[in-house]
Amino acid sequence: MKRLSAVLSGSALGVMAGTSWPTLQQAQAGTLIVDHPGTLVKRDHASTAEPLTYLTDHESIDKTGLVVWEGNVRVWQGRQALRADKVTLDRPAGLIRATGHVAFVQDDGSTLYGDHVEFTHGLKDGIGTAIYLRMEKDARMASAGVRRTNGLINDFAHAVYTACPICLKHPDQEPFWEIKAAEAIQDKPNQTLDFDHAWLRLLGLPIFYFPYFSVTDPTVKRHSGFMTFNVNPHDRYLGTYFTLPYFWAIDKSSDLMLTPLISSKTGPELTAEYRKRFNFGALDITGALADDTIKSNRYRNIFGQYSNRESSGAQGYIFAKGNFDIDKHWQAGFNANLATSSNYMRNYRIPGYGNDVLFSNAFIQGFGVGSFLRFDGQASQGLNNGVIRNADLPFALPRFTYDYMGEPDAWGGRFSVHTTDFDVLRSRGASDQRGELRMQWDRPFHNNLGQQWLVTARLDSMVYHSTHLNEQPLYEAGGKHSHVSGQVMPTVAVKMNWPFLRSFAKGHGSQVFEPIVQFIAAPDSGWGARRNMPNEDSLWYEFSDTTMFALNRYLGTDRLDGGVRGNVGIHQNWTWNGRSIDMLIGESFQQHITHSMPAYSGLEHHISDPVGRIRLSPSRYFDATVRGRFNPWRKKFDYGESLFSVGDSHFRLLGGYVYAPITPYYYYYTDFNTHAPNLPYLSPTNELTGGFTANWGHYHLSAYTRRAMSRKQFVANGGDVGYSNDCFGLDLIYMRQYTFIGGQRRHDTVLFNFFFKTIGTIGING
Known about the structure:
- The chain is mainly beta.
- The protein has one helix and 49 strands.
């Protein structure tokens, strides 16, 4: 026989093991002897093969073999622990009785409290009275009694379940919500809480009756089973529809969500979402198949044509993305988004409908010391058939990008290299290939006067091969056939910042006054006007406070901003006690003026239109940003925008305004009556936005609006009102969009969302 117990500081500490409790024998000096010591085995549930360890202030054993532990008794078996004022071990019956402040920690981490609990077969089976169960996420259950079976099933009688915190000032007050059931079962193998004959009660009032109701056990992080259903009583295209998602936890690193949809106006749909996590990356795939029976009407689009009626019947989509680490320097991935039709996405509320295109790409990229390389391919699928035709969308197959930044050289400068090369293909329109090389050297320094200087030498070079430039998007005359072209532009620039600093408000504030002067010299490019040269990334020219000191103010590199010019600006900043005011104003002076510069660019004269920006944050109750460009010849602003917010954490008013006489075009189209290209789509942008957010305790309210002043119509309106606390949430959301997509415009949308902690969200859409 082997001695396994000891006496420490007046407390008895012992270990008992074996599958048969009667093998325990009495030993002298309060010591328990085990004939066949067990082995500690790690299991997911209780097992009598695991040793039982105890700690108590007092231990006694009578002649009948009854063992009594009293005073701060603690008993452990595997990952379970029992604490009580008194524990009695009836060895012949194999029974453990615990009384007085009983607390039993189960292997899933939940704690069961009771007045009286009895266990058999170790701690596997048992019964208890006046039970209180505390689980993760503050979930709790109270019942008149519990029956424990094989350490896997807890059966509660007359149970009440809630995840709402108990009010400390009024502990007898009803929780905000609770489920009151005749019987509740904690099913550990299936990881569920099942309720029979249950009532959902709000503030003590019965609201809804469930003959049977099941939720995921709050102690479980991932669990297979049905999730919260969704019922929508009215939808423009689906009518009344119902969804019931099923979640399958395949293993610890992958899962699958299946969501069937049944509607009254069209055929069913099945959506599947698969997720997989690897040690070196992640994979997410979502797809669906549907029997779409809705036939859309034809409409006249922006091209003056009637749209093609999209076929009904079998429809579907797939959205997939993956990112993988090849090694510590290289990554690969893809993002694929495809749908059979935009009308199908509209009819079934597929995420992404409302965008102009679905974008897809695949890439491999690497990172080095001061360098980055990426090789990818890109494709797009048009969704808005009113303004986009898929045949006109380009493919970039392939596209190559490389950037390198060197270490400081012997002269204190840094050398950098950039290239973006691609092959753009269009089934209808221009196709071209570009090779680019940009080399740049920057040398910063400062002098004793505090002036900060930056000397830059840069060389841009491109070579192109193109066909069908006479078609969209450029419609270059004489560019029908294969053509090779290119450009080279050296640029030298010197920039000086001269900041002056002073303090005020007795040292609590500081002011920065900073004149900025820049000189740029480059060959005159005629504002980028190059005949028979492709243009894929420089379709608009931007002159504002953000680009005033840029070497190239086009939004790409197919067109280069040349000529001799100087830029001057004044930057000021005041900062005090967490508050600030920041402003910049500047102007450009250019030697060359040509008629090919974009209209309303602000650069129609040798002296540019002044541009400026001011950011105000004088207190936590107000902040604003205003920027614009003023035309002194026309005596009006050619560009302006502003954003502001005012209020505190309880109420905040938001607003904004943007104006531009020309909207940068994103599409050329052809007049099919004359077969001649039309001008770019030009229209003024003059929009006003506004809204507010409000919070009072558990209540919140918000609203927003966008209105196109030039078109005298709204763009979008919406709002949200709701209530939320620690265990419940309710939201009523309203949205209305006035934009036409594919010849259709959404009606009003109303969403009701109910959130119950540990149970889930129930949504109703209208």
